[in-house]
Design goal:
With about 180 residues, the chain is mainly α. It has 9 helices and no strands. α1 crosses α2. The longest helix has 23 residues. The termini are far apart.
Amino acid sequence: MHQHWERIRKDDSQSFKLLYDELYKALFSYGMHIRPDRELVKECLHELFCELWSNRNRLPAVTNPQYYLFTWLKRIILRTAHHQEQLYVQDPSLPSFADSPEEEHIEFEQLKERNHRLQLALEKLTPTQSEIISLRFFENKSYEEIAELHQSSTRTVYNTVYEAIKILKKYTLTILIVILFL
């Protein structure tokens, strides 16, 4: 495993794949102990491996890569879970408990503004990114189903989603939360 780590630091994609294959199940199991939410853990694992590959040239020399990745995953899960717990997105289909017509108007304007900002952020995506985001989050398709539809690899779909979410995060975290909870 240490050899894979060192090769990844030198841009070896085959070692990256081998490390991924070796550690995915153990990392997933560990993530489920931290936060028993399959989708959250899978998203965090995806983020971990995307960050690992993106930062491969800046990775430190470590004696125990497995421990390093477990710690990295734990931080991603805790950060993601913390953001999800802090942000509250009200479902507009639920009845409003506003005290006054003014408050109802304010809520309506806030919802319109969120939708407008979401639309603006989605327009920043490429057509492919937009379609894949739509399939993944609005139509609830799996990464494998999307890969089959696009005749590409699952890894390509993961990377496309990751890059699209980075763009959406750049414009506003609120928009990302709205997408994830729709």
